[in-house]
Amino acid sequence: MKFSDIPGHDGVKQRLRALADNDRLPHALLIHGRPGVGKMSMARALAAYIHCTDRRDGDSCGVCPACRQHQSLNHIDTHYSYPVLKINGRTTTVSDDWNEQWREFLANNPYMDFGEWLRLLENVNGQPRMYVEESADIMRKLNFTSHTGRQIVIMWLPERMGEECANKMLKLIEEPLGDAMFIMVSNDPESILPTIFSRTQRVEMLRLDDDTVTRYIETKYSMPHGDAAALAHLADGSILQADYRVSNMKRQQEFLDLFMRLMRLAYQKRVADLRVWANEVAALGREGSIDFLGYCLDQVRENFVYSLGIPGLNYMTVDETSFARNFHKFINERNVLELTSRLEQAIRDIRANGNGKIIMFDFAVRVIMLLRR
Ligand SMILES: [Zn+2]
Asked: How far is the CA of 54 from the centre of ligand 1 (A)?
């Protein structure tokens, strides 16, 4: 990771570079800001810059052995510390127990999507943290002689340190071993224990400007400039938000296509095609099918409301509205309640591990009758 790999943030790069160039790096640096602005990339770029043996043009070279080790997360004097979950049946848990998942996470999520980290920890409802053993583990690592002049601990989300852990960590930060340096990356600095927070030198990374986010969307998703700019505006300066919005948009389009096909095929009583349709929905998987049925519930409501002729009550995209213009008259007081309850029943059946293909086909056939009311 080089400074030049990170979009925006010229002022922060300038400042970090100057700290390293003038040998004024603090023992504990805290990089903070909202999720999705590139804080972890900045921490990694700084660490690589510090260790690089051939800095050029105010950046690490990217090719010396130190740079290559940083890229592959194998740099001998760089240690990562991050919140984890207790492993069943174990009394102690440290970051390294989840090393494999962490490597996968860093490789695929440069903007540190916390939801993705929970998925890798195999518990989307978990509350990962740094346990008290973490501080002893870091101390043990820092006790080894540095090979490259400076040991660096990159710590993700110090706000998730338990109090016991934080108190022990405090000692390390107050009286660092050798010239060890902590680079902390926080989404929520106000939740860091004050004793730790007060001993850090802070660098804030602000929201990215809309032009930077627009360029990111254009490049990553090959999207036309106008659409990218509209999404960037909604992303509010966060690359993570931009990614979420793009994937939601794609999903919404896919759901609308399935919804329109269902209604057209049901109206034309094309039973064989409805079976193909049901199989396609089932192929979205259990969660995907439930999300789609939830989308259908919304669309049924929207089309019913559309008939009332009060535009302020509708929440539809341009494409949804253009379908509703002709379709809304098929959703009326004679079928809206039963359509809704059939959809809710299908959701319950799929939740209960029913066969998706059968449930969706059964629902589709009922839609044929309901549309004729
Ligand atoms: Zn280098």
From this structure: 5
SS (H, E, C) the chain: CCHHHCCCCHHHHHHHHHHHHCCCCCCEEEEECCCCCCHHHHHHHHHHHHHCCCCECCECCCCCHHHHHHHCCCCCCEEEECCECCCCCCCCCCHHHHHHHHHHHHHHCCCCCHHHHHHHCCCCCCCCEECCHHHHHHHHHHHCCCCCCCCEEEEECHHHECHHHHHHHHHHHHCCCCCCEEEEEECCHHHCCHHHHCCCEEEECCCCCHHHHHHHHHHHHCCCHHHHHHHHHHHCCCHHHHHHHHHHHHHHHHHHHHHHHHHHHHHCCCHHHHHHHHHHHHCCHHHHHHHHHHHHHHHHHHHHHHCCCCHHHCCCCHHHHHHHHHHHHHCCCCCHHHHHHHHHHHHHHHHCCCCHHHHHHHHHHHHHHHCCC
- What spacing in Å lies between the alpha carbon of 17 and ligand 1's midpoint? 14
Please check whether residues 194 and 50 belong to one and the same domain: yes
CA of 155 relative to ligand 1 center, distance in Å: 22
Q: In this structure, is residue 79 part of a structural domain?
A: yes
Range of the domain at 179: 3-206
What's the CA-to-centroid distance between 66 and ligand 1, angstroms? 6
Query: 67 CA to middle of ligand 1, Å?
Result: 4
Distance from residue 185's CA to the centre of ligand 1 (Å): 23
Q: Could you tell me the distance, in angstroms and rounded to a whole number, from the CA of residue 78 to the centre of ligand 1?
A: 14
Digitized pLDDT (tens) for each residue of the chain, 373 residues in all: 999 999 999 999 999 999 999 999 999 999 999 999 999 999 999 999 999 999 999 999 999 999 999 999 999 999 999 999 988 878 889 999 999 999 999 999 999 999 999 999 988 778 999 999 999 999 999 888 777 779 999 999 999 998 889 999 998 888 877 789 999 999 999 999 999 999 999 999 999 999 999 999 999 999 989 889 988 988 989 999 999 999 988 899 999 999 999 999 999 999 999 999 999 999 999 889 999 999 999 999 999 999 888 877 888 888 899 999 999 999 999 999 999 999 999 999 999 999 999 999 999 999 999 999 8
pTM, two decimal places:
0.78
In-domain check, residue 191: yes
